[in-house]
Amino acid sequence: EPEVTQTPSHQVTQMGQEVILRCVPISNHLYFYWYRQILGQKVEFLVSFYNNEISEKSEIFDDQFSVERPDGSNFTLKIRSTKLEDSAMYFCASRPRTAPTYEQYFGPGTRLTVT
Amino acid sequence: KNQVEQSPQSLIILEGKNCTLQCNYTVSPFSNLRWYKQDTGRGPVSLTIMTFSENTKSNGRYTATLDADTKQSSLHITASQLSDSASYICVVTILTGGGNKLTFGTGTQLKVEL
């Protein structure tokens, strides 16, 4: 069964450094999402992406964040200058356009640790 | 403010027993309600999805109910197994111009013991 994959599984970086989190959505999906989950807290929406542009973003998704679909398979989340509070699990999700109930399929997540 | 509240926060039950998890929401405009299971360190996995016109949906030992009038949902787990130990998250969807936006609850941490 097709699944969303994410790399790396764990990323450790120093404060102020740039990080790129990578996701490979399910191949025939058209909508893509990033979420984050700070340890012990609920999952929070960051951004949705469709037709090569951001369709919606939350207040968390400030100028330090960007997303890109550089080719036909990858979907990336870049944090330009990481802060301690960016430490969290980051989940990528995708969905097919025709899903009647708009099901989103989540990847296993990347744990980002900022030191 | 769009919110999803879940109770209890945590729950411990013996293997083979049943349990019911609760969800109250104040999300608008409502599109659908989902229950997800999230194992520690993993991404959420969908259990059920219900639109406002559905009041119950089952997936194996999981049965979800929805009362759109009172904005309440429940997830009932029958004959629990050790592998049911996980966080169960209620998620309400808002239809937006961008497709859909998920609002997550804080989850109920379920532990099933021998």
Briefly, what is this?
With 115 residues, chain A is mainly beta.
Task: Write up what this structure looks like.
With 115 residues, chain A is mostly beta strands. In chain A, the strands form two sheets. In chain A, strands 2, 4, 5, 6, 9, 10 and 11 form a seven-stranded mixed β-sheet that branches. The radius of gyration of chain A is 13 Å and the shape is globular. The model of chain A has no long low-confidence stretch (mean pLDDT 92). Chain B has 114 residues and is an all-beta fold. Chain B contains no helices and eleven strands. In chain B, strands 2, 4, 5, 9, 10 and 11 form a six-stranded mixed β-sheet that branches. Chain B has a five-stranded antiparallel β-sheet with strand order 1-3-8-7-6, with no helix packed on it. Chain B is globular, with a radius of gyration of 14 Å. The model of chain B has no long low-confidence stretch (mean pLDDT 92). Chains A and B meet through strand 5, strand 9 and strand 10 of A and strand 5 and strand 10 of B.
